[in-house]
């Protein structure tokens, strides 16, 4: 049975949304004649529509089933009402290509209201046209491979500190929370330039509240997740603005000095147009720092957590990963930092990570908004409507990936048959490809190297389930029992 506060939230939210939106729906759609080739399906109740059923499917990790039911009932293109907006649902490689490459002036990247209210209207996912290109170029200038190579040692130091603090000396560990702490600290260091201490500690609960609010039903009551997300953003804003002012002053004082390792805020402040004016406004910096921080914090930690679970359950994959990582360790002195060259040798580990991203993509929904009536697949998508796709609908398609539920890293070998373009979209595709892909890769490879060369582990609950809220969260944080490799070696020697 749900706690009373949750029941109350559900009851009040549902009825308030119904009453408020009935009137707005009447105003918006009165007298509107739908075209003959209108997608099949139902919009359901105003505002609520199918939002609750989709959220329920997300939490149960049954999004594939939710989409498939709609396809079975209505065909490959159908309509629903999600998070306050009428929506057309698409799937397949052609739909992925359409959504990821369509001109932003026709199909823009407007997100559900809960996302834009919490992330801010100037974040990369909301921008279109030249604004999107300008801000994306500024972010990529820091997140591109050539720049990130300089930060491997810094990332590795955060990993070593995390293992020393949260793993060594412990018998049982909740893997997901301590991995989230790691990814939070890495991004705090690289994006904000904030070292360990109270300032970092104040940020973490705010980001967690924002993440939980991004796909909530957009009702701003004190007891709702959406409200907590908005409050968290409000508290975070002055902290980021203070950081921007500090970084700007520091840059002015150090402008004559070489500075090869800037944080993201400093990097964005340093970029100017040909006329000397800043490329990004302070508002754009704030919103994009927030969206990159939230994306990097939860998506990479999700991938790492699933890899911990996989290696505990799959002896063959585990053995191959350990063999590759031990070869790298043999060439390093004890305690020596990882380098970019070390990461380039972890080819099998990245194939394993890519296969995990195929089966369990951290983000499973992509939204767009039609800025004009659009013809697609023989149907009309009306101006103002959302367009939705799910990454897993191609990732788990048997016609694209044979035996899609089987974990098989060989799918990503260099000479393996390649799936059709726009089939594997864990990081997006085209001009909307995630700019943080190389940072996620760096963190994943470095963390898993340190983990498998320092510990072995087993799951305390082999079938521990997880829910998506909207990111995957294991019910008990993925409980593992760990043993340090050195202790195992000593124990085995003593028994001889």
UniProtKB/TrEMBL annotation:
GO molecular function terms noted in the UniProt entry: heme binding; iron ion binding; monooxygenase activity; oxidoreductase activity, acting on paired donors, with incorporation or reduction of molecular oxygen
Keyword NAD: no
One example of a Gene Ontology biological process annotation: sterol metabolic process
Coiled-coil region(s): 241-268
Predominant location category: membrane
Top-level taxon of origin: Eukaryota
Ligand binding (heme): 434
Pfam name, any one: p450
Cofactor annotation: heme
Entry keyword set: Coiled coil, Heme, Iron, Membrane, Metal-binding, Monooxygenase, Oxidoreductase, Transmembrane, Transmembrane helix
Membrane topology label: Single-pass membrane protein
Places the protein is found: Membrane
Membrane-traversing stretches: 12-29
A cellular-component GO term for this protein: membrane
Family indicated by similarity: Belongs to the cytochrome P450 family.
Protein name: Cytochrome P450
Lineage start: Eukaryota, Viridiplantae, Streptophyta, Embryophyta, Tracheophyta
């Amino acid at each position: 049975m749900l706690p009373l506060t949750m029941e109350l939230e559900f009851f009040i939210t549902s009825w308030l949304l119904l009453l408020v939106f009935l009137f707005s729906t009447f105003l918006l759609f009165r007298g509107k004649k739908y075209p003959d080739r209108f997608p099949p399906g139902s919009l359901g109740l105003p505002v609520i529509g199918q939002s609750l059923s989709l959220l329920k499917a997300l939490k149960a990790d049954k999004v594939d089933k939710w989409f498939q039911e709609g396809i079975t009932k209505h065909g490959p293109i159908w309509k629903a009402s999600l998070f306050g907006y009428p929506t057309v649902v698409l799937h397949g490689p052609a739909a992925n290509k359409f959504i990821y490459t369509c001109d932003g002036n026709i199909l823009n990247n407007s997100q559900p209201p809960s996302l834009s209210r919490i992330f801010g209207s100037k974040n990369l996912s909301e921008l279109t046209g030249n604004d999107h290109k300008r801000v994306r170029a500024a972010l990529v200038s820091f997140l591109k491979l050539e720049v990130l190579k300089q930060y491997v040692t810094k990332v590795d130091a955060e990993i070593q500190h995390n293992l020393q603090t949260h793993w060594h000396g412990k018998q049982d560990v909740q893997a997901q929370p301590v991995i989230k702490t790691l990814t939070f600290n890495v991004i705090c260091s690289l994006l904000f330039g904030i070292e360990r201490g109270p300032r970092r500690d104040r940020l973490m609960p705010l980001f967690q509240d924002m993440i939980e609010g991004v796909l909530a039903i957009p009702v701003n009551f004190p007891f709702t997740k959406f409200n907590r997300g908005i409050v968290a953003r409000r508290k975070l804003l002055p902290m980021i603005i203070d950081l921007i002012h500090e970084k700007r002053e520091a840059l002015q004082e150090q402008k004559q000095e070489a500075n090869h390792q800037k944080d993201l805020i400093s990097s964005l402040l340093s970029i100017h147009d040909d006329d000397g004016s800043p490329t990004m406004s302070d508002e754009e910096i704030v919103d994009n720092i927030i969206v990159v921080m939230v994306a990097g914090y939860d998506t990479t930690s999700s991938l790492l957590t699933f890899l911990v679970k996989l290696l505990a359950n799959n002896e063959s994959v585990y053995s191959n990963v350990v063999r590759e990582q031990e070869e790298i360790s043999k060439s390093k002195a004890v305690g020596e930092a990882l380098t970019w060259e070390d990461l380039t040798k972890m080819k099998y580990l990245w194939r394993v990570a890519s296969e995990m991203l195929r089966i369990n993509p951290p983000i499973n929904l992509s939204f767009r908004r039609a800025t004009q009536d659009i013809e697609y697949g023989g149907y009309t998508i009306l101006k103002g409507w959302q367009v939705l796709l799910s990454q897993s609908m191609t990732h788990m398609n048997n016609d694209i990936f044979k035996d899609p539920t089987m974990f098989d890293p060989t799918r990503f070998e260099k000479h393996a048959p390649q799936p059709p373009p726009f089939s594997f979209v864990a990081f997006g595709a085209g001009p909307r490809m995630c700019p943080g892909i190389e940072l996620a890769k760096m963190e994943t490879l470095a963390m898993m190297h340190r983990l498998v060369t320092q510990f072995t582990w087993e799951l305390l609950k082999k079938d521990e389930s997880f829910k998506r809220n909207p990111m995957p969260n294991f019910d008990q944080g993925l409980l593992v029992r760990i043993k340090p490799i050195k202790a195992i070696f000593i124990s085995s020697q003593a028994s001889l």
